[in-house]
Amino acid sequence: MSTIHVKDLHFYYGSFHALKGIAISIKPQQVTAIIGPSGCGKSTFLRCLNRMNDSIEGVKIEGQIFVDGKDILLSGVDLIDLRKKVGMVFQRPNPFPLSILENVAFGPKIHLHLSKAELNILVEKSLRAVNLWEELKDSLERSALRLSLEQQQRLCIARLLAVSPEVLLMDEPCSALDPVATLRIEELIHEMKRGYTIVIVTHNMQQAARISDETAYFYLGELIEFGKTDQIFTKPERKETEEYITGRFG
User: Fold this and answer.
1) Rounded distance, CA 237 to CA 192, Å?
2) What pLDDT is recorded for position 112?
3) Model pTM?
4) Domain extents for the chain?
């Protein structure tokens, strides 16, 4: 499980300074929530952690991001290996237009040399990890696109787990789900933190309070406050944090 250390991180979209000197350490076996108003840099920060922003034209990044002691911003970093280790779950589920089985097996087929029997074992293990195996074991050849949104999101998480990541980045993973499905995904995140480093961006402060161990409040590209979730939500040190948490701002 990976520890992440971010030092003096600056990020630019052209001339727009989107992240300003971010410094934060993210612990393994914990859920770290990133909160803040729209446009404050939450998703930009999350995507820096596996260099998903690299494909955007005109961006510039400065600073250091250490994952297990290695600076992932250095030139020469293998982005395929990085994104295998640091996986991303998006706002809306994005299953491939393939069968349930082929969705989970897709990554291992590329990265691992497994027999068909070994691959089937890995698919079962990954689906069990997200509590989908019993529901879907008799319909693995069914199109993933026919699943409910919640099942699709769980499947996307299983697809990540199949390639043995160490870090799970989640960008508002419940925003497309109803309250019942949201609760189930939150329960899953709570179960999974024992084996992963989890960073979740959420616009839902109640969700952050429910599922995270530590919370970071971002505003206008700056990290305003970071600490234990209980402390952030009950006794924040910064006035700006208190105003956001209590709904007087943002």
Assistant:
1) 30
2) 82
3) 0.93
4) 4-245
Helix count and strand count (H, E) for the chain: 10, 10
Write the pLDDT tens digit of every residue in 118-154: 999 999 999 999 999 999 999 999 999 999 999 999 9
User: Could you tell me where the DSSP H helices lie in the chain?
Assistant: 42-48, 79-85, 100-111, 116-129, 133-136, 149-161, 179-192, 205-211, 229-234, 239-245
Question: Which residues in the chain come in under a pLDDT of 50?
Answer: none
CATH topology for 4-245? Answer: Rossmann fold (3.40.50)
- Exposure string for 92-103, b = 16+ CB within 10 A, e = fewer: ebebeeebbbbb
Both tokens of 27, joined, read 């612990």
Say if CB 241 and CB 219 are below 8 A apart.
Answer: no
Q: How far is CA 32 from the centre of its chain?
A: 10
**The predicted structure's pLDDT at residue 248:** 77
